[in-house]
Amino acid sequence: DSGVTQTPKHLITATGQRVTLRCSPRSGDLSVYWYQQSLDQGLQFLIQYYNGEERAKGNILERFSAQQFPDLHSELNLSSLELGDSALYFCASSVGGAGARGETQYFGPGTRLLVL
Amino acid sequence: GQNIDQPTEMTATEGAIVQINCTYQTSGFNGLFWYQQHAGEAPTFLSYNVLDGLEEKGRFSSFLSRSKGYSYLLLKELQMKDSASYLCAVRGLLAGSYQLTFGKGTKLSVIP
Lengths: 116, 112
Description:
The structure holds 2 protein chains of 2 kinds. Chain A is mainly beta. Chain A is 0% helix and 52% strand. In chain A, strands 2, 4, 5, 6, 9, 10 and 11 form a 7-stranded mixed β-sheet that branches. In chain A, strands 1-3-8-7 form a 4-stranded antiparallel β-sheet, with no helix packed on it. Chain B is mainly β. In chain B, strands 2, 4, 5, 9, 10 and 11 form a 6-stranded mixed β-sheet that branches. In chain B, strand 4 and strand 5 form a beta hairpin. The relative contact order of chain B is 0.34. Chains A and B meet through strand 5, strand 6 and strand 10 of A and strand 5, strand 9 and strand 10 of B.
């Protein structure tokens, strides 16, 4: 158990809908990262938040957005869902946010999203 | 840009040794990580290298050569539970900050 929690574990929805995924980082970690993992693409970095502020953006679609709250939990919002958005969504956390040497990301159990 | 290559699949026998290679190209190299991921589960951290050489951790070792853009993960005394995907990830500069770029993973099957 990494100490990172994610809810829900599974989500089934229809095209065009909007969903929210939730992540709580490990105690003491200030950074939260969101990743998407599909069968053919591997783990793709979406976005990072550090202590409430957006730190970096990766391959995140405009239909997707995220935020980190004062208690450091984070939410990833996916809207106008398409069949291709079906994937595993992982959240990871780390202590800092600047990629210091030795800083490791620890992953939550993921949310499996199925868009029908 | 970032580019990471690792074999798609490997098979090895229980009790044997297997080496999983990873080659990479990155800007602003700041460390290489190996993660283990069982199907449908979270990636779990195995090892970290930032300087050239070998890091040993029990049955798992990881090697890095920065000049060659090359790393390998060595698994000894293979057990059935080692059947999983092994992800090579490089931390480099991406859009002004240090981020991890993952390879697509090597699916290791351990057979009796």
